[in-house]
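Holo prediction. Input below; ligand is pyridoxal-5'-phosphate.
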Amino acid sequence: MSAAVYGVLETSLRERRELGVKSLVVYLTGGLPGWMDMVRAAADAGADAIEIGIPFSDPVMDGPVIQEASDRALAAGATPPGILADVATLDAGVPLAIMTYYNLVYRFGLERFARTASEAGISGVILPDLPLEESGEWCVAADAAGIETVMLAAPTAPAERLPRVCSRARGFVYGVGLLGITGERDSLASSALDIARRLKAVTDVPVLVGVGVSTPAQAVEACAVADGVIVGSAVVRRAIEVGTAESVGSLVAEFRAALDAKC
Amino acid sequence: MGELQSATVSRGTPAAPVMGNPVNGRFGDFGGQFVPETLVPACQELEVAFTEAWADPAFRAELDHLLREYAGRPSPLTECARLSGELGCRVWLKREDLNHTGSHKINNVLGQALLARRMGKTRLVAETGAGQHGVASATAAALLGMECVVYMGEVDMARQELNVFRMRLLGAEVRPASSGSRTLKDAVNEAMRDWVATVESSHYCLGSVMGPHPYPWMVREFHRVIGEECAEQFRTNVGGSPDYVVACVGGGSNAIGIFSGFAEASTRLIGVEPAGGAAVGRGVPGIVHGMRSYLMQDEFGQVEEAHSISAGLDYPGVGPEHAHLSDIGRAEYHPVSDAEVIEAFKLLSRTEGIIPALESAHAIAWVSRERKRLAGSTVVVNLSGRGDKDVAQMMDILGPELQGGTPSSGQGGGS
Ligand SMILES: Cc1ncc(COP(=O)(O)O)c(C=O)c1O
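Structure of the complex:
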């Protein structure tokens, strides 16, 4: 391991793990009406970190729920600088990460994006369409600004690839739980436990599983192996269907309670 | 060989061959493999499989056989006496419209379908704009006994109804893309989402020289036959090389295919974009659909919706090799308006008895507009497809003008 000093996000997730607590990371689409209150509510309800999505016109890794949220946020006027400016005023009390697509970062300017995010209090960045081989330029800018770049690891990766992905991961490794895009599923795919197991075997960076973790019971199941989970579509569906911070908070609290009781 | 390499601007780096193979998955600064992690191994496997297949004489022989005996190649190079007379330059058409399924798309699809089968894949996923690539994919799937799912924007399904029916008749499933602009860009998104979920059994049969590496390169190689045939036909029938080669550009596959036969010649290469989808003309570098290329986008990097009368060119991006050819000055890209395209559609129909696809009519439109500049020159236009698919749409547009006295044939006539 090259990273001797961990960033805010990774330090916090490692601390959880040492305490024997499973990590709960919640994804919310930035720019939805009332989203900042939702972020606060999720943090208050026990999320260990929050991913804030900056909506993109063409989100190829996202299913219908997050697509819909992205469209609504864009229609409401969400922009990358606008969301980063809002984040700067947001005191959620937990580490924050940005999740977005690479073109928005590229257009903003890699260094400027990393610096602006860092100044806004962002710890990590997740770019689902920027795989290891293309990540060099961005990682230079991110490292320089102290931004932790979370790498994704997918079930399709051959064995030799996973250690390379993990050695470039900061914050946590995002184990993609299934073959597919974001969205809720009736049951946890067996690939979720497989990828968690394969990652745990090659890295000491916290291993979180996301994509297709839709219910508290599924979160518990994934955490039999993983250090934590990322919950996206289930929370975003609350955010767009009910639309209140309370409804988001109460769902996050259910996940928190299940993880604390059963893991 | 022997002709001088024109127009390449050297910028102090050692001269790479014009239209050579990509280096590190890139043509100059453009290209790459900006895909979700799930797809990286699939793209890498595809690169290896294509490289092996392309070097395998048995694969090449099987593809050549299909291109000849099934698709009807070689396609003729037709000299257009009446059009030439009207425009004041000598015009030839490379007749990709005469291929089986009615466009150049079949060249690429037969190659990819054979490759997919060789890789053990049983299902083809495709996106389509005008429906020509979808029809070609459905055709190849039927021929090789594969399953086929085609994503098509809802707007395009309405304006290219005939092709939707053809795809279904050929046994493919057509799934509407109902997000965003509901055109080609959104069909690509849906196809990529499908592929992320089905990558173990499916091959993404991408329809143009775009997307992540190795697609821009592989699709070019499968369309290289257009340019090679054309250069040979011109040399034999006319002598030398034409002054201009002109092709429409959506993603850019028919253009790359014909350009590749003239890369080393002094021929000027002209790509014609729709004014409402001019990625090279109006775009700035960006990253979408797995590639870095010119892209129409707003100040924040949100992809803009293209607007073109032709579904096959209604795309805000462009293949990375075109971005590179534009940057090094080897090819020029110019926009034409929908109105100019409609005139060109009529012009070719009337003067030569050839109804062009609306896409291909873009290339004719540029030649027609630039007739003064082209006076006395030799010009080859890639007629990438035939216009049957566009007739219903054109009936709505031209109906009142052309219907004088003729009884309307029912639905779709005159609106
Ligand atoms: C006849 C025809 N020409 C051209 C195109 C545009 O594709 P490309 O730019 O890849 O040649 C299409 C796409 O549907 C088409 O059907």
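DSSP finds twelve helices and eight strands in chain A. That is the main takeaway for now.
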